[in-house]
Specification:
Elements: H1 7-17, E1 34-37, E2 40-44, H2 57-70, H3 85-98, E3 102-106, H4 109-120, E4 126-130, H5 135-144, E5 147-151, H6 156-163, E6 172-177, H7 189-199, E7 202-206, H8 221-225, E8 233-237, E9 247-251, H9 253-262, H10 264-267, H11 274-289, H12 291-311, E10 314-315, E11 322-328, H13 330-342, E12 345-346, E13 349-350, E14 360-365, H14 372-390
Parallel strand pairs: 2-12, 4-5, 4-6, 6-7, 7-8
Antiparallel strand pairs: 1-2, 3-9, 8-9, 10-11, 11-14, 13-14
Length: 392
């Protein structure tokens, strides 16, 4: 009998031919500025651990204490046996941090986006989605079975023209990242708020890459733009600058009550373990009350971006810890990343489908725990990689 999976080999061959085949790189250390891969030390410039909190002693100690008290797993979904006092405390802390009435936890940011979007809208409704939104937003849109209209990246005029044509729709939702994960740029949040209010739309923002990095308290883009009381649906993650695991949605009490009763990725999913919850509680306190970490991160960001531009690299405009260096096609991007690694820096090439064809890049990401000498070493490696690319 013919193997029913015979077609996979052909698909894999096609992926390899396009230089898009992916393999895992195993780290033998934590998410620190210096990591170990295959017994060798590299500077890590590819982590979303923006404030270095995954290895912070206070965060680790909180996780350790919770592990001893609650064990390794939660044992069930939140609505059965998997809800603890720590879940409630973290939801209350997130709501306070984001200046909303309430919050709800999910096991990941991906599940938060998918569950929330598919609960809020359905067939007959319409979603307006930025063309560079994260895959979790895109998949949430697909799962909802609502009509999806894609607007040009951060293009307020294009979005406005789309909204003006759909005045009779039942429910309308604008969904966008605030900091875009591959470009590092910032959505025009105040203008989106104005449009949502003008056309009676729900507005949902994804603060995954903004939390901990933007705002005086590190709360994210809503704080940075001063619109905390005007964005009704605020999603975020605990796995990036917070340095732990999980996702959340913050908003009004009625929104959160609705999601508890309708978001399938919440209702049917095993809840987060206590160690992650305790780590997040301490990490949010550090984010809010130790702004010097964020200040140092921004100092390193500006130093690194300036150095890259002086080398002559094509650095995309960004306002975050994500610093994209545009290379172009897949093979040159792979060669660039390989040269970086040969010179002691680990940051992989980003290729389709993560980015559009022809826009392959090195997505560098900095952490507050990096030191100036790490940046200097990294810049020398980028110079070597740039020169090698020019000599091809």
């Amino acid at each position: 009998m013919e193997d029913p999976l015979h077609w996979i080999k052909e698909e894999l061959d096609l992926i390899r031919d396009k230089k898009l085949f992916r393999v895992l790189t195993e780290l033998q250390s934590g998410q620190s500025p210096e990591i170990i891969i295959e017994g060798k030390c590299y500077i890590l410039l590819a982590s979303n651990n923006y404030l270095g909190l995954t290895t912070d002693p206070k965060v680790k100690e909180a996780a350790r204490r919770a592990l001893e008290k609650y064990g390794t797993g939660s044992g069930g979904s939140r609505l059965v046996s998997g809800s603890t006092d720590l879940h409630r405390e973290l939801e209350e802390r997130i709501a306070d941090f984001k200046k909303t009435e309430a919050a709800i936890l999910f096991s990941s940011g991906y599940l938060a986006n998918m569950g929330t979007i598919s609960a809020l809208v359905g067939p007959g409704d319409i979603i307006y989605s930025d063309e560079l939104n994260h895959a979790s937003i895109i998949d949430g849109c697909r799962l909802s079975h609502a009509e999806v209209k894609i607007y040009k990246h951060s293009d307020i005029e294009h979005l406005s023209s789309l909204l003006s044509l759909d005045k009779s729709r039942n429910k309308k939702l604008i969904a966008t990242d605030t900091v875009f994960s591959m470009d590092g740029d910032l959505a025009p949040v105040p203008e989106l708020v104005e449009l949502a209010e003008k056309y009676g739309c729900m507005l949902m923002i994804d603060e995954a890459h903004a939390t901990g990095v933007l705002g005086k308290r590190g709360s994210g883009a809503t704080e940075y733009f001063g619109v905390e009381d005007r964005v009704p649906i605020v999603m975020g993650t605990l796995s990036k600058a917070v340095g732990s695991l999980g996702g959340y949605v913050a908003g009004s009490r009625k929104l959160i009550d609705f999601l508890r009763n309708r978001a399938r990725t919440y209702i049917f999913d095993t809840s987060l373990p206590a160690s992650s919850l305790a780590a997040s509680l301490v990490a949010i306190d550090i984010i809010e009350f130790e702004p010097e970490r964020r200040k140092h991160l921004w100092y390193l960001i500006e130093k690194f971006k300036s150095g890259l531009k002086n080398i002559g690299l094509n650095v995309l405009p960004s306002y975050s810890a994500v610093i994209p260096v545009l290379v172009g096609d897949a093979q040159p991007a792979l060669d660039f990343a390989r040269t970086l690694r040969d010179n002691g820096v680990f940051t992989p090439a980003v290729r389709p489908p993560s980015v559009p064809p022809g826009k392959c890049r090195i997505r560098a990401a900095l952490m507050a725990t990096h030191k100036e000498e790490h940046i200097e070493i990294a810049l020398r490696a980028f110079k070597v990689a740039h020169d090698s690319l020019l000599n091809l």
